Amino acid sequence: MFVKFLSEIQEIETTSSHRRQWKGFHVHRLHFAFTIPNELISSRSDVNPEYLNLLPTVKEGQRYYGLATKQEYMPPRIMYVVTAVSTKLAGDLSSATLCRTKREITVMPSIPASPPLQIEHFPREYKTTCIKTLKRRMWNRPLGKLTVSAAEPKALNISTFAPRASTIASVKLLFQPCGAQTPAARPYEWKLTVRSHLKLRTFYSTKPFTQIPTKESIKSEPLAEVTSSCTLSEIRQCNTLPWRLHRLSSAGTIASDTLAIPWTTTLIVPVNASKSLIPTFLNPLSARRYVLVLSITIEEIHHDAMVLEVPLQVISDSSQPAAPMKSGSSGVSCDGAEYQVTTGMTTMDLEDRHVPNLLNTTQPPLYAAR
């Protein structure tokens, strides 16, 4: 699908051009400016407003060629091409075309964070709460049940001066002992291990989606597909947590040490990711969403791993960049200069044909050719 969404005319004085000799010819270099809009426009009134947002350049999936069309396909594929035509006014009513050229550019629009995702509209795609039974040993009596839950964290912003994009996930833990007859549990002595990684889901179709794609809706779309891939895991140890009894007396003392009073605490999990991630996007033929996967285990306690899968947005918001790392702080030095075309004004040279690879994408997922 090809869309022409912007046309501009700019008058350039001949005195502003740069001329040089090349193989006996006079070569003129003309500089001009062009605008990249924030949103697209459509003549139809029934278009989903989310489909009109400017999308980042995307080239993922397995590349193949159609035998009938003789064209290259790589779903999902979002490309931007600037076409420049230089004309010379010969009179009041006539003009002559001097040259015509086009250049593929890489676009990284400024994408702010959207409201938190309503997970009820995405069945079987996220898991924000997990409950597990804890035991000393496999055949021992249960100590109680541990409930872990997490909401959607603040978005990962890849437009940052820091070496990596980062955010923080807040995980709530509630331990409910079985009762006074069971061995006393001491959650404040537990040592927790937290493993975290990002799951990338890419939806694409050869026919426009009838609704926002989900794992369930894709099953009924014969021309749609979804691929998944994961980033590397981060492992963190947490030896002490500020557990507290959930029920206290009015004086602030423990109401009873014999009843099964629940314990609560909050676990803060730093989340880091590469700045080469593609921001979350949605268009009629493709979409990209991210899932933060958290796996929590307790040492010397028998239980199944507690796994949470919460939605996470990846954005590119240059209006809220992270502060640079202070000198002497730990971590890898900041990345080198980044060259990427953002929303706004930029310039282009008619003679220069070198197009740098402006966006380093993640490893492309496999594409199931039909």
Description:
The chain is an all-beta fold. The chain folds into two domains: 14-108 and 344-349, no CATH class; 119-315, no CATH class. Helices cover 1% and strands 39% of the residues. The protein is built from one helix and 23 strands. The protein has one helix at 215-218, and strands spanning 18-22, 25-29, 31-36, 58-59, 64-65, 72-73, 77-78, 80-89, 95-105, 129-135, 142-150, 156-157, 165-177, 192-205, 224-230, 234-238, 244-245, 263-273, 281-282, 286-298, 306-312, 314-315, 344-349. Strands 14, 15, 16, 19, 20 and 21 form a six-stranded antiparallel beta sheet that branches. It has a five-stranded antiparallel beta sheet with strand order 10-11-13-18-17, with no helix packed on it. It has a two-stranded antiparallel ribbon with strand order 1-2. It starts with 17 loop residues before the first strand and ends in a 21-residue tail after the last strand. Mean pLDDT is 77; it is low at 323-370.
